[in-house]
Batch of 2 targets.
Target 1
Amino acid sequence: MTPDPATAPTPPRLLVLRALGLGDLLAGVPALRALRRAHPRHELVLAAPAGLAPVAEATGAVDRLLPASAPGREVPDSLDWSGPPPDIAVDLHGNGPLSHRLLTHLHPAKLLAFAHPDTPEIDGPPWYAEEHERDRWCRLLRWYGVDADPGDLRLPPPRTASPAPGAAVLHPGAGSPARCWPVKRYAAVAAGLRARGLRVVVTGGADEGDLVARLAKQADLADTDVFGGGLPFGRLSALVAAASCVISGDTGIAHLAVAHGTPSVTLFGPVAPSRWGPPPDPRHRALWYGPEGDPHGRRPDPALLRITPDDVLRAAGELPEIRSGRKGTRHP
């Protein structure tokens, strides 16, 4: 006899709050997978921007995305949660107190979060501002008895074919002007890579069309090498996974390169790679001269401007795909 869905028992639900961007979600993958392993029978619901649903699915850890977002890195005003309270709620958004209160408003049976003086009822571990993002959330879970591995961050190979297999991908945009390296310098890097026989393509987010167009013009790129306007995640993921290298600032595509094991050069400033950089691996180079500055600044940070095109080309030349001269399709 087929069970009646209306009378079937509802599985317990685990709500995770991380209503941030692509790089944030990818940095949180080890924690999400740890929660999945620890609670295999729970429905794991991720509160995050709706556009990240394909990314959440690719992690293999999330059952359902609950659309939630706010400007910048702010905490959403509310969550469109329905039904009984969550059995478990996990704050992977920040150290509170606003994110804590957003979750406690749902009356979860259990809340996992960092301690904060304004929410003394939460008995969590201390927050360390200088800690690496991947390590931070794994430490939070371990404090609550959940085994978590910061190195568990790889995504499976995309099912979509790359639109430019073997290309070097340049991504000039970032979440704030402080993290945007000048277009003129990216154009110089493009010229250097093409002189080495590499195809160079440029990508950009939905609101970065002008930036991408300026780089394409200065680098004299063909229209077929320009992927602006915000590629759908499946296509962007395929492009990155099959690239010879990815060169960008400290932004989401750098984390996507790490997730696919694609060689990368990431330009850091104003935030140090010790907090957001790739794991130690010969496939990844993090350029950083310091000191730290304002991540929300309106101009490229002075630390970022200390990085020259020669620095980037030298680092790219040390990457395995470039050094070996393998310019064909990569297979992660």
Target 2
Amino acid sequence: MSHRHPRTAPVVPHRVDPDAITRLVAARCLQYPDQLLYAELPLLRAALDELPETSAEHPLAVFLDHVECTDPVALAAHYSDTFDTRNRRCLYLTWWTDGDTRRRGLSLVRMKELYRAHGLEFGGADTDTGGELPDFLPAALEFAGRHTGAGTELLQEHRAGIELLRLALTAADTPYTRVVEAVCATLPGPSPRTKEEAKALARSGPPRELVGVDPLGALEPLGPGVELPWPTTRTARRAADGPAEGISR
């Protein structure tokens, strides 16, 4: 979620949580690629260096290499072309489950309440979140990086939509595929291989492998020396365009 001081880092914890680091870096990578992203590349690379067995072939490292060698204007245009509803590549999680229906409003309220239970507020332009919707994937990822128990449950609840996004990005042959692949790798169980498998996952529900996880757990540790840019979530760059449809349709 968003904080008021973009250059401050979270409290330095005592051990590395690879999933938390992956989600936080991915959250930044899945936002609109402004000039600040380029300025923050050293911080993001330093965070990945804290991961065990990190190599130049790590999906997020590969994506950051792409950012570094891509003109900012070209990357921004690619981002806008990539993430929209017309091509079924949407970064808003409840769009996948509820589409453009009244149910989506109820789902957004539920997510706000989850965040509020952890001391985070959504609700308007005057809040710390800068007016972003709570189902924006980077927002959910930052929450899941800071509160891995409750965050993993939230991502699992929306697993089918995230996997369908991954498959759509793969089909589009975009570098953003690597980022969503890294996110999916932090979740329990294997990823669906096809759209049919992902839709079946939506009908049956994600695997329940979170026994003993406190759904309202406190801030999980990231690791010594990990520093990430804050805030990550900002206002929406692009309104969803075109008719939306839920997974079940």
